[in-house]
Amino acid sequence: MTGRIMVLGGTGFLGSHIREAFQAAGCGVVSVSRNGSAGPGRHVRLDLARAGIADLGSLLADEAPDVVVNAAGLATPATDRQLRAINAEFVARLVAATRDTRLIQIGSSHEYGPDVPGSTTAESHPPAPLSMYGRTKLDGARAALRGRAVVLRVSNVAGPRARADTLPAVVARRLAGIAAAGCGDRPAELRLAPLRTWRDYVDVRDVAQAVLAAVAAPAVTGQVINIASGTAVHVRTVVQRLIALGGLPVRLVEDSNGSLPREPMQWQRLDVSRARELLGWRAEHGLDESLTDLLSSVWPPDRQLSTHVSTQR
């Protein structure tokens, strides 16, 4: 693959993996974020939430990308105003600035809202998001579609360097803390709020490959495409797998005093047939691989991982 790719939010969880995937594919990549430099390649520092259309136009003129990938976004904890500023209002300005440049918008499955347990959500499902995050991401997606962008509507993401506020990352870090502290004769206690929901988890590296596939399909424009594993997993299973992969004597306790999760949606599984048909993409990393590599990325270096967990960092 050749060309010049601009990744907005290129230092974040999704953005950094997308940036690295394009670099590995031989593309010239410029990363744009409020934080500036992080890793090899060209980086531009810009507060996207405050950038106006003229600022974005100047950026595009200076860097001359063939494709812009918008991986910038904000999830909770954040105020409604902060969510709207970056997830919706910024995207509208970006669309106005990128009229002559192809845009790939990273969306979220939270844009759909709840569905019936046991069902599979296709792109034709009428969006009815419950959270402010979902509503602002949907507003951003609609703005992108008006500009003929491709919206990759991504399900829950797992894998190495996962965002610290996600359930897998919270559990992985707590397990790493237990490993660092050492285990006594009695099992350590992992306390969480009741785990009741089902989620469709996709590995962050598969998401990055989906973005590459979307860029490699220039005829695909103005569409929403689900990016997910296509499988619903109970979140208690995710926690139990992390405990098992960590190989520690840990007892899971679910009660109302535990932290996470506070999810209004009880079920979600996405239909990924459009991604297969239009992009030739499917998820390649299984959930255990995602969770294993997440554990490896946070595990204390002076503690040995379970024999089930790769020590590659």
Describe this structure in words.
By secondary structure, the chain is of the alpha/beta class. It is built from nine helices and 13 strands. The protein has helices at 13-24, 53-63, 80-97, 132-146, 167-181, 204-215, 235-246, 273-279, 287-298; strands at residues 4-8, 28-33, 42-45, 67-70, 102-108, 150-154, 156-158, 188-192, 198-199, 201-203, 224-227, 233-234, 250-254. The strands form four sheets. A seven-stranded parallel sheet has the order 3-2-1-4-5-6-11, with helices on both faces. It has a two-stranded parallel sheet with strand order 7-10. It has a two-stranded parallel sheet with strand order 8-13. The protein is globular and about 65 Å long. The mean pLDDT is 93.
Strand content: 15-25%
Order of helices and strands: EHEEHEHEHEEHEEEHEEHEHH
Largest sheet: 7 strands, parallel
Helix/strand/pairing class, anyone?
A: alpha/beta
- How would you classify the quaternary structure? single chain
Q: What is the rounded distance between the termini?
A: 27 Å
Question: How much helicity do the residues have?
Answer: 25-40%
Task: Give a concise summary.
The protein is of the alpha/beta class and 313 residues long.
Q: Which secondary structure elements does this structure contain, and how are they paired or packed?
A:
Blueprint: E1 4-8, H1 13-24, E2 28-33, E3 42-45, H2 53-63, E4 67-70, H3 80-97, E5 102-108, H4 132-146, E6 150-154, E7 156-158, H5 167-181, E8 188-192, E9 198-199, E10 201-203, H6 204-215, E11 224-227, E12 233-234, H7 235-246, E13 250-254, H8 273-279, H9 287-298
Parallel strand pairs: 1-2, 1-4, 2-3, 4-5, 5-6, 6-11, 7-10, 8-13
Antiparallel strand pairs: 9-12
